[in-house]
Amino acid sequence: MLYRSLLRPLLFRLSPETAHELALHSLSFFPGLVKRLLTPRPMQKPFGELRRLGLSFPNPVGLAAGFDKDGIALESLAALGFGFIEAGTVTYKPQPGNQRPRLFRLQQDKALINRAGFNNKGAVAFAQQVRTHRPDCILGVSIGKSKTAPIENAVEDYLRSFEIVYPVADYIALNVSSPNTPGLRDLQRAELLEDLLRALQTRNRELSEQASRGRLTPLLVKLAPDLGRAELDQLVDVVKRTNLAGLIATNTTTQRDGLRASKEEIAACGEGGLSGIPLRQRSTNMIATLYNLTTGLIPIVGVGGVFTAEDAWEKICAGASLIQVYTGFIYQGPRIAQEINEGLEQIISSEGFGTLDEAVGSRAKELSMIS
Ligand SMILES: Cc1cc2nc3c(=O)[nH]c(=O)nc-3n(C[C@H](O)[C@H](O)[C@H](O)COP(=O)(O)O)c2cc1C
Question: Contact, 70 vs 130, CB < 8 A?
Fold first, then answer.
């Protein structure tokens, strides 16, 4: 297809971040053109009714957090056929992120390494932008800790972001798993996470009463793929105790094993989170483990190395009821949501399932992490 044969080779000549900015700004400037040229034809509800998190999803394929941190191209991105978009991660304070270069391609591995460090214009600017440029799909907003907020003040910092993005978000994702903000992953420790989730759910309740919404905004937490089985056990208990709406598995990994790239190439990238194909199995295994630990009662958004409908299908069978892509979007191009959705439609019927929901978790036992 045109992207893989023509546009990608051109974009891949640019530095990864320049290519990203060019693509994102082009999308933000020409939503009309994107809609005319790239919007897939509507599908006839091939997945049955996709009710998740108390919301109705047009399809199960979403764009993962980090692609559009400031929400500048959401209308065009929705026009590419994504059922939902997770914008952000935004922080309470605007911040520049880490020094460049901070994004690297490992092409032989179909992977990326990034240490962006939550570069964003801050929660207030984000909410203003989105108020006037809402996408025509479900909008999740990912919030993270400002770099300058010490970990002791993390709860306060997250609360501020939460309040600001609350009016524009269909769901809010708590990012406590980026490897690129020092100390952030400590918030995945059960005691700290419980304090954070309790505070946010209390504020969630207060805000929903004030707005007479009659229901809480779904709050999800996004986890790192580098957690062990024992840690997941404890986290799942916290998630149940705090009535969380869902889990997102997974963020990028700090591991580097099994890569085709040479040691020198890997070392030249430096620190950061690895995404794409090398993350796929690890993330799928974690999804299956989480599905088993939660006995399928808490929706899981599956993310990590999804490039094709087959990859998405495996994550669904592991226990994901929604899917997200990031690195696959870079390598496969703007039709990835459409390609995965059409592929899933075929797989569901060829595997003999009536709806997508019947398949969720159907292989969770077999695919879970070996303890
Ligand atoms: C350049 C880049 C920036 C990212 N920024 C964020 C972010 O701000 N917040 C977040 O939760 N995840 C972020 N991620 C992680 C992705 O959302 C996703 O969880 C991860 O890349 C695995 O999916 P993939 O293999 O499809 O890329 C980022 C990933 C990349 C490659």
Answer: no
- At 282-301, the pLDDT tens digits run 999 999 999 999 999 999 99
Closest ligand 1 atom to Cα of 250: 19
Q: Please report, for the chain, the start and end positions of each structural domain, with discontinuous segments joined by +.
A: 2-360
> What digits encode the pLDDT tens for the residues 156-172?
999 999 999 999 999 99
What ligand 1 atom has the least distance to the C-alpha of 306?
A: 26
The CATH code that applies to domain 2-360 is 3.20.20.70
Question: Would you say residue 197 has pLDDT above 90?
Answer: yes
Q: 76 with 99: CB under 8 angstroms?
A: no
Quote the ligand 1 centre to 66 CA distance (angstroms). Answer: 5
CB burial of 128-146 (b: ≥16 within 10 Å; e: otherwise) equals ebbeeeebebbbbbbbbbb
Tally Cβ neighbours within 10 Å of residue 308: 15
Using most ligand atoms within 8 A of CB, pick from 251, 306, 340 the residue to mutate for ligand 1: 251
